[in-house]
């Protein structure tokens, strides 16, 4: 057998894309609850609806470079559609959904806890018991089916009140508020959750809108300070898990988009190195090695950025080193010093088109071998156990007249990636803990806000405008993945 007997097979979701029940059970408003639907890319942009300081209402583009003016307050316009409000309604379907996961043979389920379900405003004196009880029920249901929860503490989210009142993670006070939330959930669930992760795709903290950061690249000092606060918050969370649940494992989570240089021209190789350091390696280095790497310190120095630090910060980062690395892998990209020609997409990032790779419906390069390369690079550099916590193909599925959903394209994508994953373990000796493909039950796309861009093994009847029965249907890939899990990855036919 290639994979260890205790290998974690499952699927992955996020509360703001899957859970729904956005004001149920005492939950408060989160930033994601103010982001409208759309397609995000092809003509119907997604917006954050805000009220400006002078009282006027407007829409701000939701994106990595969007400017959120000081004094702007995000709000919910009842005439607009917000995907997170219902999503695909795990809140009311959790028993049915977990039973479907169990039927596939899952022994792991990666999910996230919604911060505003525990602390509705983020700075409440006491947690919301109804919210805590909901996750108790979810974890009990998982336990009943012998499924290990792999829980992300923060998945692209921030309580709206913290963004309005404090400026989100630009304010150091939010570190302690996050730590209070972490202490609450780890204390409550320490006997039910044995795998934790701090921030989802932490290298996307530059998506200021989701984290309540009210400035973008036009204010590099503020951006760098906010990122510093997030990294301190992650380190503090790691320390809390180690203290409160010493038998548990706590990891980081990175979006690993493998970058290739466009050519052997040293300028392209240098551009790829610099891009990779800025986009990805910096966050890995801090969380796995416990300090800012020299190249980042030099970069900040050149930019005239001075991080505002407090005594004990360096020790906190050193003590907050993670136990394992969780990462998403969907695609690779090509970096050129002087990019020209056709571009391509891929998990919020673009690049020069790779002529050697096919692309998905949404223009993402499909690169299974890149997964093996990624696993080797991470293992060789950090020597920490790895977990693939997101991987998958977003596609528009068709329901046939007889009700079947024949998603062979998804099976082909997953099969090719699992084959490369196994090679990394068997031939290269990579220490791999588990594999949880993204959106195991259909959910709303984080990047585009669509429902038609589906990843799951289970189809959910819901359209891009939030209309549908929410009924669950098994796709062809459901039965294929069940067979894969039952054979511990040996039967991929």
UniProtKB/TrEMBL annotation:
Enzyme superclass (EC): hydrolase
Pfam families: Glyco_hydro_1
Keyword Protein biosynthesis among record annotations: no
InterPro entries membership: GH, GH_1_N_CS, Glyco_hydro_1
Entry EC no(s): 3.2.1.86
GO biological process entries: carbohydrate catabolic process
GO MF annotations, alphabetized: 6-phospho-beta-glucosidase activity
GO CC, any one term: cytosol
Keywords associated with the record: Glycosidase, Hydrolase
PROSITE patterns the UniProt entry points to: GLYCOSYL_HYDROL_F1_2
Domain of life: Bacteria
PANTHER family to which the protein is assigned, alphabetical: 6-PHOSPHO-BETA-GLUCOSIDASE (PTHR10353:SF296), GLYCOSYL HYDROLASE (PTHR10353)
Protein family: Belongs to the glycosyl hydrolase 1 family.
Entry protein name: 6-phospho-beta-glucosidase
Organism whose genome encodes this protein: Lactobacillus gigeriorum DSM 23908 = CRBIP 24.85
């Amino acid at each position: 057998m290639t994979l260890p007997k205790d290998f974690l097979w499952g699927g992955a979701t996020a509360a703001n894309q899957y859970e729904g029940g956005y004001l149920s059970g005492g939950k408060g408003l989160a930033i994601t609850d103010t982001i409208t639907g759309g397609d995000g890319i092809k003509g119907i942009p997604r917006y954050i609806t805000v009220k400006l300081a002078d009282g006027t209402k407007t829409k701000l583009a939701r994106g990595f470079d969007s400017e959120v003016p000081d004094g702007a307050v995000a709000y919910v316009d009842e005439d607009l559609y917000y995907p997170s409000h219902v999503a695909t309604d795990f809140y009311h379907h959790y028993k049915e959904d977990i039973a479907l996961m169990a039927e596939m043979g899952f022994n792991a389920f990666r999910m996230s806890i919604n911060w505003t379900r525990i602390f509705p405003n983020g700075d409440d004196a006491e947690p919301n018991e109804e919210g805590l009880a909901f996750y108790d029920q979810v974890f009990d249901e998982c336990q009943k089916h012998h499924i290990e929860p792999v829980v992300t503490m923060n998945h692209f989210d921030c309580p709206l009140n913290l963004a309005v009142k404090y400026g989100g993670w630009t304010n150091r006070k939010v570190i302690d508020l996050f730590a209070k939330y972490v202490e609450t959930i780890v204390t409550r669930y320490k006997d039910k959750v044995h795998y934790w992760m701090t921030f989802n795709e932490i290298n996307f903290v530059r998506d200021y809108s989701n984290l309540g950061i009210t400035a973008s690249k036009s204010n590099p000092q503020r951006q760098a300070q906010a990122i510093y606060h997030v990294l301190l918050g992650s380190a503090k969370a790691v320390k809390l898990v180690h203290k409160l649940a010493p038998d548990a494992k706590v990891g980081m989570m990175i979006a690993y988009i493998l970058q290739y240089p466009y050519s052997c021209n040293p300028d392209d190789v240098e551009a790829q190195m610099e891009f990779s350091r800025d986009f990805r390696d910096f966050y890995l280095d801090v969380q796995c090695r416990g300090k800012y790497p020299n190249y980042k310190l030099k970069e900040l120095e050149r930019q005239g950025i001075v991080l505002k630090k407090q005594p004990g910060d360096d020790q906190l980062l050193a003590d907050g080193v993670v136990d394992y690395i969780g990462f998403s892998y969907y695609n690779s990209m090509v970096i050129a010093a002087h990019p020209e020609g056709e571009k391509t997409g891929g998990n919020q990032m673009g690049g020069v088109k790779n002529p050697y790779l096919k692309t998905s419906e949404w223009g993402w390069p499909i690169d299974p071998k890149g997964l093996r390369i990624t696993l080797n690079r991470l293992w060789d550099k950090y020597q920490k156990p790895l977990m693939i916590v997101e991987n998958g193909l977003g596609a528009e599925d068709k329901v046939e007249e007889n009700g079947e959903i024949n998603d062979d394209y998804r099976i082909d994508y997953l099969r090719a990636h699992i084959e490369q994953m196994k090679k990394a373990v068997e031939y290269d000796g990579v220490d791999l803990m588990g594999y949880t493909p993204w959106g195991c039950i259909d959910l709303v796309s984080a990047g585009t806000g669509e429902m038609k861009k589906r990843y799951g093994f289970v189809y959910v009847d819901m359209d891009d405008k939030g209309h549908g029965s929410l009924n669950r249907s098994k796709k062809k890939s459901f039965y294929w993945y069940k067979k894969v899990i039952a054979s511990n990855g040996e039967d991929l036919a």
